[in-house]
Amino acid sequence: MTQILEVRGARRVFKTPEGGTVAALDGVDLDVGQNEFVTLLGPSGCGKTTLLRSISGFEQLDSGALMLEGKDIGRMPAFRRPVNTVFQSYALFSHMTVERNVAYSLEVAGASKQEQKILAGEALEMVGLSGTGSRMPSQLSGGQRQRVALARAIVARPKLLLLDEPLSALDRRLRQKMQIELKALQSELGIAFVFVTHDQEEALTMSDRIVVMRGGQIEQCGAPRDIFRKPRTKFVAEFIGDTNLFETTIECVHGGRILALTREGTKIWLSEETKLAKGDAATVVIRPTDLQVQDAHSSCGFRGKITRVIYLGTDLHYYVQPAVGGQELLVVSRTDGSRRAPGDEVTLTYRPERAHVVEDC
Amino acid sequence: MATPHTRERLFLFGLLTPVTLLLGIFFLLPLAVIVIYSWLMPGLYGGVEWEFYHWNYGRLFGWADGVMEIYEPIYLKILLRSLSLAILTVLLTLVLCYPVAFWISRLSPRWQVVFLFLITLPFFTSLVVRLYAWLLILKPSGVLNSTLLGMGLISEPLEILFTRTAVVIGMAYVMIPFMFMPLFASIGNLDRSLLEASSDLGAGRVQTFFKVMLPQTMPGVIGGSVIVFIPSVGNFVVPDVLGGAKGLMIGNLVEQQFLSARNWPFGSALSVVIMAVVLGVMLIYVTRLVREGRAS
Ligand SMILES: Nc1ncnc2c1ncn2[C@@H]1O[C@H](COP(=O)(O)OP(=O)(O)OP(=O)(O)O)[C@@H](O)[C@H]1O
Ligand SMILES: [Mg+2]
């Protein structure tokens, strides 16, 4: 796949008002393919916005390279870069009509009035806002403004669209709707999107690839399924979705099979490639959806007692206290006929290939 | 029974009454006196005779018969000169203050306070004293000329003092804080992400300035222009000190009529004309800008 954007060794250090320094970007490598939807995900302050602003040209990298379609754009001023941004605050021009807002990039590029009108109309139609062109931004709802900002950013068909938490100001319902629309729009346009969020659900829903960032570095980068199933580190495992963590010591490695022992002595079987050897410490992750609640007399698994049951419509959350002690485990299962109640003795089972060892940092 | 609505009105009424009375007494009353005086006959030794007399305006606009009063086109010329001086002052202060306001608005709050203080500093000394300082700077053997001569940039002293240039410089100097404050407020409130958005969408600096920044800060531009223009038209202190005999402005004329010629009705007529003209110019300017702001 040809890359539209390549970021190599990007570094950006800020001085803090307190007199120290903070590396907002600390050696970031990132590739974005043509027509790819890449999401930058990470906790607050991990450098997502800084990375985005470096790509759009509002921040200069201290070191590192920035290539767009193979051309170095590191020194190019923002207004020359064929990259557009959807701002978190929308940044609509309040003194212009919606249509002029949308047509702005065409206007400054010297397109004819007629062309501006046609293309702006098309872009507005794409985001489902035809007929609002003559309004002022102040006469639109929050969701509509967000769509105008989107239309404005895509009207000139940039090579790459950057979106910095564009949905965070919307309510949950609207946000879910926009997630789907945004994804559809992206495949329709064939423009690569780099999307920033700190909402893991949003990232899983929309992305072709998720880039998990932490402290100015990329922690892991991969398809949503891989990130969720095979988190590289404990940080990623805990950041994406609920998770059960077990601190273990490797007991034996044999072929593709691993046996790990928790401190309390519970056995965990894993089935994956590993460099670990007997005696090594290992953190094991099992997703709550990968645990099944069985009757107490079932053989291998974690024995325990249900402490809480939370009903969430389609899902049930069971909190189970292992009999041998240690951390409470979370099990998510579909709501089915079986009615288990707090106090019930149960055994939690899992498939060995769903247990996964993560790095401990 | 008082609904919340009427109670609110009563409350507002109570709040507004004092200021209304104050304005009525100290603003409208003198204004009415001036308008009435302008249609009365000047008394022989100052004051007025209570008799309808339209030659005050005749003297200005040309229907004087040459017997009661003499028509002099010089008055209108001086009025025009004063207007152009005021416009020049507005433009000059605008061009000087805008970039400075932008620059200061980007500083940290601590430095902003320092610079705002520096800009209001001139108010701490009397206007006349400050203008005499300018006199010392601009006079042929003054600081400016001796510096330029010393550097060899000019071979003989520039004749700036007692010219219109000196008046414009002095006026701009006096009016800068008045232009600066509304501009600074407007530019400080400007959402920086709008400028980034403009640049992101492909607009260079010049385009961003004219298409986004200027329209967005228009309230400050209009406010500053109005606040500078109005007192500039009638200002008589600056032309008095720096303008010399050739720099006579309409404000000086009014001053003369009231204080030395003791022709109050004619002075009043001049004042009424100034007010009407200023009001007219302001109305045209503001409505045009507001309409443009809405259209663009
Ligand atoms: N202009 C700046 N001056 C100083 N420090 C900055 C500046 N911009 C960002 N930083 C610091 O750089 C780090 C990364 O900031 P950034 O805005 O990229 O985080 P983020 O991942 O976008 O966070 P969020 O999810 O909260 O938006 C933070 O520690 C922040 O305090
Ligand atoms: Mg951010």
What this model shows, in words?
Chain A is an alpha+beta fold and 361 residues long. Chain A has 2 domains: 3-238, Rossmann fold (3-Layer(aba) Sandwich), CATH 3.40.50.300; 242-358, Nucleic acid-binding proteins (OB fold (Dihydrolipoamide Acetyltransferase, E2P), Beta Barrel), CATH 2.40.50.140. Chain A has helices at 48-56, 98-102, 104-108, 113-126, 142-154, 172-189, 200-206, 224-229, 234-239, and strands at 3-15, 21-33, 37-41, 63-68, 71-72, 83-86, 160-164, 192-197, 209-214, 217-222, 244-254, 257-262, 267-271, 281-286, 292-295, 302-312, 315-322, 329-334, 345-349, 356-358. With 296 residues, chain B is an all-alpha fold. Chain B has a domain at 78-191 and 220-262: Orthogonal Bundle (MetI-like fold), CATH 1.10.3720.10. In chain B, 74% of the residues lie in helices and 3% in strands. Chain B has helices at 4-37, 55-61, 74-105, 109-120, 127-138, 143-150, 164-189, 192-200, 205-216, 218-234, 237-243, 250-259, 264-295, and strands spanning 40-42, 48-52. In chain B, strands 1-2 form a two-stranded antiparallel sheet. The termini of chain B are far apart. Chain A binds chain B through residues 56-58, 77-80, 83-85, 87, 89, 91-96, 100, 104-105, 107-109, 152-153, 156, and chain B through 191, 193-194, 196-204, 207-208, 211-212, 215-216, 218, 293, 296. Bound molecules: adenosine-5'-triphosphate (ATP) and magnesium ion.
